[in-house]
Amino acid sequence: MIVQDAYAAGFFDGEGCVAVVVRSRSEKEISLVVTIGQLDNTPLDFLAKNYGGKVNRHAKKYKDEIVYVYSWCLYGENALSFMRTVRPYLICKAEEVDAALKFPISSWKKNHFCEPLPEGVRDQRVLVMDELRDIRKRKKDESRTKVMQ
Question: Per the CB 3.0–4.6 Å rule, which of 5, 63, 96, 99 could disulfide with 131?
Fold first, then answer.
């Protein structure tokens, strides 16, 4: 398992994304998502088999031809479980994952779409979303500074 987890961590560290997304205009559904996009579905199928989630295929037009792009996605508790597993091996995304691991899971389910998230849960999820945004902005600014030097 250690080699498998290290491989998954390296792949996620280089190609993955962790985000908190607002899925409705009324901000009733705020979700944690881990995703990796790739032209080759083989490593994504490996991740889905070993960590759960789903691999989706999307057709994209590129230079007058159709190209298939694959994405692997995990949400909520599954995303948290994956991040806890790979965290010891992360380098680039370690800070983002540390922030994302603060994402609160509640008993609130999608079928309660008419009800708002409990206030404390919603507020904590927004704080995690803001922290992830701030980390990415800082890293982008640091990267620009390095290029200009």
Answer: 99
DSSP state letters, 68-116: EEEEEEEEHHHHHHHHHHHGGG-STTHHHHHHHTTPPP-S--GGGTTSP
| Residue with the two structure tokens 């806890």 | 84
Cβ atoms 42, 48 nearer than 8 A: no
Q: CA distances (Å), 31 to each of 22, 55, 108, 134, in order?
A: 6, 18, 11, 18
Q: What is the pLDDT of residues 129-141, one digit of tens each?
A: 999 999 999 999 8
What fold is seen in the domain 2-148? Answer: Endonuclease I-creI (3.10.28)
Extents of the domains making up the chain:
2-148
Mean pLDDT, to the nearest integer, of 17-39? 86
Distance CA 121, CA 137 (A): 24
Q: How big is the chain by its Cα radius of gyration, in Å?
A: 17
CA angle 60, 62, 67 (to 5 degrees): 50
Q: Cβ of 80: how many Cβ atoms within 10 Å?
A: 20
Angle at 99 between CA 14 and CA 22, to 5 degrees: 90
